[in-house]
Design brief:
single chain, alpha/beta, Rossmann fold, seven-stranded mixed beta sheet, five-stranded parallel beta sheet, 16% strand
Length: 424
């Protein structure tokens, strides 16, 4: 019996992009649902990893790639990066047909042999980054508060039944489609399985450089301990070395991190640089995040009960989960997610900035009156520093929390929204 298909926010984005370009590249971490989503819209499919046909497909891609492009459109080429020559073939075929909606390419990594690609595909091939499922997509958020509506200054209304124990479970379960709707033991097995595959094969297969799984584990543990921080390469390197490998070099660490980015495991948040009234120096370091918080829990070998006993760590991984969701929601409305921190220590966990210049300021807190009050105070302080003669005022200020019972607006104008209410 076929499993239920959970509608993804990027379903509509993919359809829109196909209407405006000859081909769309859907990229993202393995197991996040790219192939299922793309096949939902495809007229025909080529699975490059099909073990019965892989050898023939690779030979055909080398000798006569256009043969693989024949079929009902949009034609899906799954894991296209196994045969990088297909990129130029798709670009050329799009030129020849001169029609939109011809191809969908999906890939869990950038191609190792970019030398085989002679054209960027600009104007012919557009891209769509897909991530593991947000809480709204998995049905764990009721979607009563819309991020898009907040930019229109709509009032917030909604209630949330998620308890802190539910949040801890959702962090460890992650947004992997195979875990959604499954019993707890099955759902919690998905992230460790993904992590094992990542360490044993994916991190080496991405560029053909053999990497030691034990070293990869040390890197992943160190990075996971740096989630939601601006940890420097030196700091992460010291953590790796302290984990039992004093000979690990900075160049080796950078090689491992580069591979993790190429397979969409690491997704740091860049710094936001607003116009300020003062001369405050803004820190430009990225904040460290993984594409899904469950990767961090798998790397550290912890589960929901461990998070219950360590609320500081739980808070950092909760922030990573919120950033994952905010990225999915923001990109569907033409926005990007940043962070802010200055030399005085004032920070804002996330800034959702739209292409039209409007933006919202968001602090992420597990919950509790003290933390919510602290987050609201930070947001108001930052708002007062922004030079509104040179840029818009923030469209909203919001404390995004774990398990508040309601979404509401405080007397100071700051919104308090549980993550279990939010949607795009």
């Amino acid at each position: 019996m076929a499993r239920k298909y959970y509608k993804r926010i990027c379903d509509d984005l993919l359809a829109q992009k196909l209407e405006a370009k000859g081909a769309v590249l859907v990229k993202g971490a393995r197991w996040c649902g790219k192939t299922t989503t793309a096949a939902n819209l495809a007229g025909s499919v080529v699975y490059m990893e099909d073990p019965e046909k892989k050898k023939q497909y690779l030979e055909m891609a080398d000798l006569n790639p256009s043969r693989l492009l024949q079929g009902e459109v949009p034609r899906l080429i799954d894991e296209w990066q196994l045969a990088p020559k297909l990129w130029d073939a798709v670009r050329f075929e799009v030129d020849q047909r001169d029609e939109f909606g011809q191809f969908i390419l999906t890939g869990s990594a950038v191609p190792p042999a970019t030398s085989e690609i002679s054209h960027t595909g600009i104007g012919r091939i557009t891209s769509l980054l897909m991530r593991p499922m947000s809480l709204f997509e998995s049905g764990d958020s009721d979607g009563s508060v819309s991020l898009a509506a907040l930019f229109k200054n709509d009032d917030v209304q909604g209630s949330c039944n998620l308890r802190l124990s539910d949040i801890e479970y959702l962090i460890c379960r992650g947004g992997w489609p195979k875990g959604i709707g499954q019993k707890e033991s099955v759902a919690l097995a998905q992230a460790p399985d993904y992590y094992d595959s990542l360490i044993e094969s994916d991190i080496s297969r991405v560029d053909g450089i053999e990497r030691d799984p034990e070293r990869a584990k040390r890197v992943m543990r160190a990075y996971s301990r740096s989630v939601a921080s601006e940890a420097s390469i030196t700091s992460i390197l010291n953590d790796v070395r302290g984990d039992g490998n004093d000979t690990f070099s900075e160049n080796t660490l950078r090689s491992y991190l580069s591979a993790l980015r190429k397979i969409f495991v690491i997704e740091d948040a860049p710094a936001w640089n607003p116009n300020l009234r003062s001369k405050t120096a803004i820190r430009s370091s990225d904040t460290r995040y993984l594409v899904d918080p469950s990767i961090a829990t798998a790397a550290l070998g912890i589960g929901p009960e461990d998070l219950m006993n360590d609320l500081d760590t739980c808070g950092l991984f909760f922030e990573n989960m919120c950033v994952r969701d905010l990225r999915i929601y923001a990109e569907s409305i033409g926005g990007s997610v940043y962070h802010y921190r200055d030399k005085s220590g004032l920070e804002c966990d996330t800034v959702v900035h739209l292409r039209n210049g409007h933006y919202g300021l968001i602090e992420i807190k597990l919950g509790g009156d003290r933390l919510i009050k602290e987050g609201a105070a930070n947001l108001i302080k930052l708002k007062k520093m922004i030079d509104t003669g040179k840029m818009y005022e923030p469209s909203f200020m919001m404390v995004l929390c774990a398990n508040a019972p309601f979404a509401y607006k405080r007397e100071d104008g700051v919104l308090v929204v549980p993550i279990g209410c939010l949607r795009n």
